[in-house]
Amino acid sequence: MQGLRRYGPLADGGVRLELSPIALAIDVAESAETRIQRLISENPVIIFSRSACCMCHVMKRLLSTIGVHPTVIELEEDEMSALKARSGGGSVSPALYIGGACVGGLESLVALHLSNNLVPMLVEVGALRNELLIS
């Protein structure tokens, strides 16, 4: 899990978790397509969304429930069209990428979760550690 350090156990039996800030580099001279591709390759789990997207909120809640906190990028309209071109022209808000691969929208995420394929995919890309899973 990127940006998370675990310390513990504590005297009372609890575990101390500490989040460290994660910096995202933005180059204003970079084209929208290049910036999107770079962000996808730099982040194991990333959601591209419009602001105030309720489906993005549901995606974040589902992922956080299993212990993953994705990078979320809110795109402007010109960037949305660049993402739409990259994804084949379909609906792109929200668009989830895991390990550089386009998963799709909320429906695809829920389908992965219900088929028990989501957690192994997240472990494979390093977004979730195997030893943190309950057997």
Automatic annotation (TrEMBL):
Segments forming domain Glutaredoxin: 45-102
Location of the protein in the cell: Cytoplasm
Pfam hit, one: Glutaredoxin
Cited SUPFAM superfamilies: Thioredoxin-like
InterPro entries for this protein: GlrX-like_pln_2 (IPR011905), Glutaredoxin (IPR002109), Glutaredoxin_subgr (IPR014025), Thioredoxin-like_sf (IPR036249)
UniProt keywords, alphabetically: Cytoplasm, Redox-active center
Name of the molecule in the record: Glutaredoxin-C6
Tagged with keyword Cytoplasm: yes
NCBIfam families: GlrX-like_plant
GO CC annotation terms, alphabetical: cytoplasm
Similarity remark: Belongs to the glutaredoxin family. CC-type subfamily.
Alphabetized PANTHER family for the sequence: GLUTAREDOXIN (PTHR10168)
Keyword field contains Metal-binding: no
